[in-house]
Amino acid sequence: MISKKMEQMLNEQYNKEVYSAHLYLSMCSYFLDRDLDGFANYFKVQAQEELQHAEKQFDYLHEVDAKITMMAIDAPPSEFASIEDCFEQTLAHEKLVTKSIYTLVKQALDEGDFATHTFLQWFVTEQVEEEATVKNLLMKLKMIGDNSSALYLLNDELLKRQLGPAA
Ligand SMILES: [Fe+2]
Ligand SMILES: [Fe+2]
């Protein structure tokens, strides 16, 4: 069993993961409209990963006999200023999610809830990877600048991204 407070925080985290999926699908659509299929693929896979995160939290809540409560999901932005803007917003969003995970970890430690603490470690590691990947892509976009052939190559590279199994 987990505490009511932890139950509520994990339900909120589930909601944030689903919001993340919607945010990245919104970005996917931005790239589809611009025929940048590689970038669109990158964000579609990113959205699928976020749904895997949500599912992990759903399953954990069920495992510990907690009550699962579906909440309204905020609408993500539907307009983006540029390719770089999408990645900057992604980085800012991932930093918020990292903070949210850290708050959960702290709560688990404060409560002596070592099972939830262990469960959350996967997300701590995942967030390091998520932020690093986005930072790397932002750096590449800055190097590309206005060079459309370089952008085409990056688009091709991003087309290869595939959804891995939910580790
Ligand atoms: Fe996530
Ligand atoms: Fe994420």
TrEMBL record:
Q: Where in the cell is it found?
A: Cytoplasm
Q: Which InterPro entries match?
A: Ferritin, Ferritin-like, Ferritin-like_diiron, Ferritin-like_SF, Ferritin_DPS_dom, Ferritin_prok
Q: What is its EC number?
A: 1.16.3.2
Keywords in alphabetical order? Cytoplasm, Iron, Iron storage, Metal-binding, Oxidoreductase
Which transformation does this protein catalyse, written as a reaction? 4 Fe(2+) + O2 + 6 H2O = 4 iron(III) oxide-hydroxide + 12 H(+)
Q: Which residues bind Fe cation?
A: 17, 50, 53, 94, 127
Q: Provide any one GO MF term from the record.
A: ferroxidase activity
Q: Which residues form the Ferritin-like diiron domain?
A: 1-145
**A GO CC annotation given for this chain:** cytosol
Q: What is its main location?
A: cytoplasm
Highest taxon of the source? Bacteria
Pfam families cross-referenced by the UniProt entry: Ferritin (PF00210)
Q: Which Gene3D superfamilies match?
A: 1.20.1260.10
- Set out the biological process GO terms recorded for this chain's protein: intracellular iron ion homeostasis; iron ion transport
Q: Does the keyword Metal-binding apply?
A: yes
In the record, which residues are listed under signal peptide?
A: none
> What family, per the record?
Belongs to the ferritin family. Prokaryotic subfamily.
- Please name the PANTHER family in this protein's record: BACTERIAL NON-HEME FERRITIN, FERRITIN
**Function, in words:** May alleviate iron toxicity in the presence of oxygen. Iron-storage protein.
> What's this protein's name?
Ferritin
| Species of the source | Jiulongibacter sediminis
